[in-house]
Specification:
Layout lengths: L3 H5 L3 H11 L9 H12 L5 H25 L1 H5 L16 H20 L3 H20 L6 H10 L1 H10 L4 H22 L3 H7 L4 H5 L1 H26 L3 H19 L9 H26 L1
Helix pairs in contact: 3-4, 3-9, 3-15, 4-6, 4-7, 7-8, 8-10, 9-10, 10-13, 10-15, 13-14, 14-15
Length: 295
């Protein structure tokens, strides 16, 4: 198995597959459900498919660009971390230049998609790109870097609303705040795996600054804020009761996620980060969408 990966990288298709693997393309599932739920809330039912498709292209393009930037900017940091040293760039399987090319394609797809949506979305699109590029640098100077990652997700529901209506809604802004604390909370959990490496490399995170036990309590408080923000959003958006069922399901799943790990046992970290967060996003969005269709 180990010998086939470098050989695959010699072909154009092999390099593209390596790029998708290194940016964890499948993790787009974390963000897409919030955009889809917002689109159904805008339409108060089934939205038109044309803007929905362009919205999906914009989301995937932006995330692909942002994750590519993250990998290029953090290539030296990743090389010094045994957990990430096997990623494509530090392992020498693809070059930073090649990643920049793929990022350029993703950026072009994002801009093309945004151009097909409301004009205000086009004017605001540079903010999205700036946030995506800025996030990787934050761990170099602040332990609040988790919230900087969350800032990427706080944009998603309001940006979706703006893209489809040309207006901003305060209720959907609270939905974005919920997404921000959800992502920041699970990013804190993920960062516990690198606490010693972060300290050795002089990088900032809540676990490296406060220790694992305190970090997990901060993560729990962030997830509590997520649930509160989702409820506030629901009251402002005048949603169907199924929305609150979704918020309750998200609260239960977040509680379960938090119970998967403890300061003395991080063995189920992968399940807490990768599996549960995809489930949470899909389940919550599913109830929100169902509520709009019932309405």
């Amino acid at each position: 198995m180990a010998s086939t990966t470098p050989q695959a990288s010699t072909s154009a298709w092999g390099r593209i597959l390596l790029f998708f693997e290194t940016i964890k393309f499948e993790h787009s599932v974390f963000a897409l459900p919030f955009a889809a739920a917002t689109a159904f809330l805008v339409a108060d039912g089934l939205p038109d498919w044309n803007p929905l498709v362009w919205l999906a292209v914009a989301m995937i393009g932006a995330r692909t660009f942002g994750m590519g930037a993250n990998r290029v900017i953090d290539a030296k940091i990743d090389a010094g971390n045994p957990r990430t040293a096997s990623r494509a760039i530090p392992a020498g399987l693809i070059t930073s230049r090649q990643v920049w090319i793929y990022m350029g394609v993703a950026l072009a797809a994002f801009l093309l998609a945004v151009s097909q949506l409301d004009q205000l979305a086009w004017y605001l699109s540079p903010i999205v790109i700036a946030v995506l590029v800025f996030y990787p640098y934050t761990k170099r100077f602040t332990w609040l870097a988790h919230l900087a990652l969350g800032a990427v997700y706080i944009i998603i529901p309001p940006a979706t609303w703006v893209a489809l209506t040309g207006e901003l809604n305060w209720g959907v802004t609270w939905l974005g705040i919920g997404a921000m604390f959800w992502v920041a909370g699970f990013d804190i959990i993920y960062a516990t795996a690198d606490i010693e490496i972060d300290r050795a490399q002089g990088l900032n995170s809540i676990p490296s600054r406060f220790g694992i036990r305190a970090a997990l309590w901060i993560s729990r408080s962030f997830h509590l804020m997520t649930v509160i923000a989702l409820v506030i959003a629901g009251t402002l958006l005048d949603v169907h009761a199924l929305y609150y069922v979704g918020a309750g399901a998200a609260a239960s799943l977040l509680t379960y996620e938090q119970r998967l790990i403890s300061p003395n046992d991080l063995s189920r970290l992968g399940a807490a980060f990768f599996t549960m967060n995809g489930v949470i996003a899909v389940v919550f969005a599913g109830f929100v969408i169902a509520g709009t269709l019932v309405n």
